[in-house]
Amino acid sequence: MRGEFILIFIFLIGFICASYNLEDYSIENYYAPSSNIKGWINMNLSDEKSNAFFSDSFGNEITLLELIKSNNNLDYSCNTKDCGSDYIPLSGHSNILTDMETGSEKILGFFIKGNINAINSVDFVVESDAEESCFNQIKFDFGLDGTIESGNTKSSAGLCPFLRNYGCLSGNEEMNEYIIGKFPNKHCQKINLSESASFNLGAWINAGSDARDLTMALYETNGEPIESALCKIKNATGEGEFYCSIDYLVTQQKEVYVCIYSDKSGTSKIRGHYDPNGCGFYGQDYQTENAAFQIFAEGKKFDSVGTINITNSLLHGNTLAGEMNDYLMKKYRGFNCSEGCVIPFKIYSEFQQKIELKNLELKYETNLGQVIGNKFYKIEEIPPTINLKNQKIYLDEAGFKTPNAKGNYTFKLEFEEEELFSTDIYVEDIAIPRYVTPTKTASAFPTSFRVLTDSKIEIEKYIWDFGDNTTETTTTNKVTHTYEKIGFYDMKITFRDYSGRNASKNFEIIIISPKELINEKIETLQQDIETIDAKINSMEIFKQKAIKSVIDIDKISEEFKQIQKDYQTAGTEEEYNTIVKKLLEIEVPEDLAVTEKAEFMPFFPQSGVINLDVLKNIAGGDYSEDREGYVEAVRTWQQVNLNAKISFEGISGVYSDRQEELVKIFKLDIKAKDNLDSIPYIIIKNLDGLIFKENYLEQEKSGYIFIEMEGSEKSIEFSTTEDIGFANLPLFISPSLERLDLIKSPPERIINMNWKWIIIITIIVLILGLLVYLILTEWYKRRYENYLFQKRNNLYNLIFYVNDAHKKGMDGGQIKTKLKSWGWSGEQIEYVIKKYLGKRTGMIELPISKLIDKIIELFKREKHDKKDPIVKNNIPSRKI
């Protein structure tokens, strides 16, 4: 009778009438690449399954219940108590033998009936023929809460190189070396650990002559050390990747910090670079992630499964009986199982295998004594249904992301594969908040916050949501706010530009007590001042001078010493607040990094930087209305008479929350190709923070600096704080205007000629033109590539870069801009991109040579046929 009721119930479930309708929707139209779609849909839902899917045109999807839970304060109802699935027992077996495929899942369950007091214990045996694997071959989730409570825990010595994970390190950036800190200072990188029973932890190390032991250790993402998860790298010599092994079971992918440090001071180094969007940091405790280091974790193999004894005791101190009691309390609101209670569990198979479940002992207490169940049950899942009336469901946190590449797209949203709506969206460069400073401040202290962006788009409004239920709108990138309580706050900053486009980013703000902040800032500033002072003093004298024009480290050091003295005598809240204010005003980078570099690149000024009026004022002479002709004459004069090479270096300060460009240093080497018949002038715009390495007898006029080039060679070196590269450097070299040769077009001549001669000359010109075209076609085909790239490695490297940039979502315009900034010519760039896309790189090839070959072949065949005029079956011969 019970079996008939279950079958009827399942049959009737299929006749529940589900319905929905879309009332309205609103979607924002402008987005940055790879950002969340923002907007809402207003829907009515009646008896819709919770696992019904929403999907978009970019391949993203989310279930109905997940979407509802991503919203706050939606009023909806489910037909089950907890909006979870119901389960119906079908049949019980003391042994269950099943074949499972790779990547398959199977839901089984335990069934209890009657009024019980509690489940005491659960034990059973699992046997599997799965061999060793880099993935956990079998896993169990009891209660279907997404947590893996049991599985294979046996580790093997076998390696899994493809599981090696470097976190956010891309390997494409220029790397610097940093001395490995003495504990408690450490270099840490956030890494997602694979499901593995043991790991190799390692890093790239330059040991040099340093013989100290290095420790690799795991830390939770909150900064707490993971017990016993550490190992020693001993006797590292030379440079390269070194590692050690730990036994640490991870049943589900887990994000941790992998850290390296030593118990002793030394000189061994680790490799990495500054990255404002990085996942690494250096310091004593958790710091702002602003770096990427060559640190890795590599999962090792799970051993063959064999027999697993699943006992009541689980990992991390829990019990299986406790998990099942919690499930009954949540699902059934207690232990009243008079109608029957099903406790489901899921088996995950990552390997093709035969699995047998047996020897179950499910012990539970009833009012009449203990009962021991010994059957596993096959069960039927009935997903809940959801009702929701006329409410806005926001998509902002649903995970519907825009493409990486800029462009115009159609965003289409579907529900259960039926289109709800489609609308145009535009993915383009818009101003996005990148960094906010400071990210750590004191409670009850009015702090001035500043938000930074790398976009040059003008912002109309800055909307600040401080995460403490207060907001403010400003027209500048600064705001003052007081956090009253200690804690962690999620600050959301939104930019609105003059086109009405919005872009937001969230930042974690840490609030601590004033005294704690003072102690922490004094400690970090002391270290940063010493580091930067040492780094500056290790540089060439001119670089020192250039950097100190931006960071007056001597003055900062004196101010810091005075703050330390003030702190020793401070006692009132006002005095502490004054010290906090002064400390937050001092910004010293943690490190200095060379972020841009080019050496001995050919220098040729762009037309736009040549100022004829300035040249006239400095060198004399005059020019006519043909400005373009004179500009080209300046460029031609330099090309004909000089070899100019430029070297360039950009130095940035690495702060805890960002990287900021400090200075750019240029060196220009000029050599005359032959004796010069006039004195040229090196003319450069008076840039921000312009400093020359030495006295070049430079003079200023009309906002420009000029230097006479006496002799056949000249080398000048200078620095600037202006955001400019060598490709658009406002510098040109020229003699006086009267010394330039202006190229003029010859005057037109009218020639009287009869039509006969016109036709003959036209034919001759066409024939000559055709011959020249054929010669050029052949030259382009055979020599053009060598002409553009004398070193073929340069061509291959550029094609590799274009391919890599396309994979990262950069469009053609961004790639061309980047290559131009590195000094490649437009002609070279166009050739590389055409080569990469498989397009024609030369001239259109006329089929004349093929036509000539056909004529010759026909002539030979005709000659052959005259000698041997036999034709067999009228079938032409075929060359093999």
Count of DSSP H/I helices = 15
User: Main sheet, how many strands, which sense, barrel?
Assistant: 10 strands, antiparallel
Q: Compute the CA-based radius of gyration.
A: 37 Å
Q: What share of residues are in beta strands?
A: 35-45%
Overall pLDDT score? 83
Low-confidence stretches: 1-16, 745-751, 849-853, 859-880
Number of strands: 48
Shape: globular
Taken together, the total number of domains comes to 7
Question: What is the percent of helical residues?
Answer: 10-25%
| Amino-to-carboxy terminus distance | 80 Å
Helix- and strand-based class? alpha+beta
Description:
- A hairpin with a 5-residue loop joins β35 and β36.
- The protein folds into 7 domains: 2-84 and 385-427, Immunoglobulin-like, CATH 2.60.40; 100-154 and 305-377, no CATH class; 158-302, Jelly Rolls (Sandwich), CATH 2.60.120; 435-512, Immunoglobulin-like, CATH 2.60.40; 515-588, no CATH class; 592-739, no CATH class; 771-880, no CATH class.
- The N and C termini lie far apart (80 Å).
- The model is unreliable at 1-16, 745-751, 849-853 and 859-880 (pLDDT under 50).
- α4 (514-537) packs antiparallel against α6 (553-569), α4 runs parallel beside α7 and α12 (792-807) crosses α14 (826-837).
- Strands 7, 8, 9, 10, 11, 24, 25, 26, 27 and 28 form a 10-stranded antiparallel sheet that branches. Strands 12, 13, 15, 18, 20, 22 and 23 form a 7-stranded antiparallel sheet that branches. The chain has a 5-stranded mixed sheet with strand order 2-31-30-4-5.
- By secondary structure, the protein is α+β, with helices and mostly antiparallel strands.
